[in-house]
Amino acid sequence: MINLAPVQDVPIGRLSPMDGPPPGVSTPPSAAHRPTEARAPKPVAQRSMGYTRKWPKWTMLLLGVFALWSGAAFFVARFVLNVNGRATLPTQIFLRSGTGRVIDLGAGTGRSTIMVLEARPLTTVVALDLFGDSFEQHFGSSLSPQQKLLTNLKPAGVERRAAIQTADMRKLPFDSGTFDAAVSSYAIDHLNGEGIRESLAEAARVV
Fold first, then answer.
1. Do 72 and 161 belong to one domain?
2. pLDDT at 190
3. Is 160 found in the same domain as 74?
4. CA–CA separation, 106 vs 167, rounded Å?
5. What is the pLDDT of residues 29-48, one digit of tens each?
6. How far is CA 85 from CA 25, 41, 121, 164, 168, in A?
7. Long-range contacts: 129-132, Cβ < 8 Å, 24+?
8. DSSP for 58-115, written as a single string
9. pLDDT at site 58
């Protein structure tokens, strides 16, 4: 005769995690034991705004063309035209004697004034500008327009040969024949047709 030991019932709630599941019961693998799924890395382009927001391809193409055009324009303006660099006289015929009195019409921040004073060390220049609201729009309001112009003249060492005049280039407050030459850059072209004619007539009068 075979004696069988009595089987004791163990409540499920008292099972230890180390005991594993009861016989015949299967459980899904935990997150720590699940096989890692292979995920392809996302391309860098997909992380851009266009891909994230699922913009149409033609929109992304236009943005790409615009970006290339902007980069090319910046390169030409900065390194080919050198718009922020020192200006040079467009012709050596200008006041070849090296002396004389010059008026800079629409002097702005003094780029053309510095150009003349550096190229012709014996000249003097009247830097004339109306210094209106457009000046602050272009160059800020941290300093007065006249002070900003003066701060540009000082590092070049030409401030003693320059005089700053606040006036309208269409009605110059000077007698006829006061100057030996006149220069103007990026100023007269901002006027309308009548203003351009008036400023050119005034420049011819005072020279």
1. no
2. 83
3. no
4. 9
5. 444 444 444 444 444 444 45
6. 82, 45, 19, 22, 27
7. 129/165, 129/166, 129/167, 129/187, 130/106, 130/166, 130/167, 130/168, 130/169, 131/166
8. HHHHHHHHHHHHHHHHHHIIIIIS-TTS----S-TTTTTTSEEEEEEET-TTTHHHHH
9. 81
Decide if 31 is inside a domain. no
Q: Does residue 12 carry a pLDDT above 50?
A: no
Residue 130 and residue 177 in one domain: yes
Q: Are residues 73 and 160 in the same domain?
A: no
Q: Rounded mean pLDDT of 124-138? A: 85
116: amino acid identity, one letter: V
Q: What digits encode the pLDDT tens for the residues 61-102?
A: 888 888 888 888 766 665 666 555 667 777 888 998 889 999
**55-86: buried (b, 16+ CB within 10 Å) or exposed (e) per residue?**
eeeeeeeeeeeeeeeeeeeeeeeeeeeeeeee
Same structural domain for residues 58 and 118? no
Q: Residue 132: which residues within 8 A CB-CB, separation 6 or more?
A: none
Contacts of 172 (CB under 8 A, 6+ apart): 103, 128, 202, 203, 205, 206
Distances (CA, A) of 105 to 45, 99, 178, 180, 182: 50, 19, 14, 14, 7
Q: Is residue 40 part of a domain?
A: no
Where do we find the tokens 């150009």? Answer: 115
For residue 76, give its domain range.
51-80
Residue 51 vs residue 63, higher pLDDT: 63
